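Student:
Attend to each token:
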Amino acid sequence: MRPRSARDRRDPFDDVLRIAVLRGGGLGDLLFALPAVDALAAAYPEAEIVLLGTPMHRELLDGRPGSVSSVEVLPRARGVHSPDGGDDPRGIAEFLTRMRARRFDLACQLHGGGRYSNPFVAELHARHTVGTATDDALPLERVMPYEYYQHEVVRWLETVALAGAEPVTLEPRIIVADDERAAAEAHLERGTAGYVVIHPGASDPRRRWPAERFAEIAVRLAEEGMQVVVVGEGSDAHLADAIAGLASSSLVTSIGGRLSLGELAGLLARADLFVGNDSGPRHLAQAVGCPTASVFWVGNLINGGPLTRTHHRVRLAWTTRCPVCGIDATQVGWSAPRCEHDDSFVADVPVDAVWSDVSSLLDARPLRAVAATARRV
């Protein structure tokens, strides 16, 4: 058999009716993969696309219009989905048996460098497999090299292109249901100058801008008659309460820990602006069409920042070494495990810089309204 040419490696596969997409991780991880899923849906319009994901992914996508047909929740498996750090061998075996019965024609690994995820995908026994691979990862049928510093959306688009799926979208899109928008109204007051959502959290504490800075932004917004709703889940909920307390304004309220993912999507779709760190809710805001003003560490911007600037602004922190021990933070992942310190890498971003982005995006609201009306016509 002759070796495949570069062109062959991008040709679509034949007779693909069932596709599995492996994507564990958090909310942002899922959203980064959605344009790749859209590309698969366009390339294989008759195929059922099954996302192998997390309970959070099912909560967001179950019953929602889009390219994902259904979500199968992953078992606890190291390097694939391990929220408590452990494996569930029996659960893994049962899951793989059930997935093999689906007889997937194509399995796409959209989950990291493949050290753990490629063997997992191989065990699905799909007819064809594509994915990324580090030097030490099990090769799949068609692979591309995994280099850490690449935008995640582009990475996964490049990956599914190995299966002949060309891009049709460059940004994730989430369709918000009418009942989710209606639920958001319960948290909004009438007669204000508009609505802004602040999310002060991030899964990595080093990505968190100080709460008192967000409180200052909230105070300035309230002084201009804007209602500010501060959100947060889990370990972020207390930050939402702290910001509302610091702002000390009737127009600044915390609903930390009180929203489902669908309700959060509805609130963000209703908002004039999102202000926050690099986080899952920031990426969700962008996906539902809400403008965003964000604080990013420079390394994270490369991998997960917004690709456009008309409706999405970022302020960068250029810190490259831990503020406590000085370890180089630009070397990531398996090559350089992080130190134990959680001090913020983005604390030096000034309030006035973020406020400049907030003001600019809010000033553009009439232009966005005109553009939205034109699209509906």
About this structure: Residues 133 and 146 are 5 Å apart (CA to CA). Residues 1-7, 370-377 have pLDDT under 50 and may be disordered. The first strand starts at residue 18 and ends at 22. The chain is about 35% helix and 15% strand.
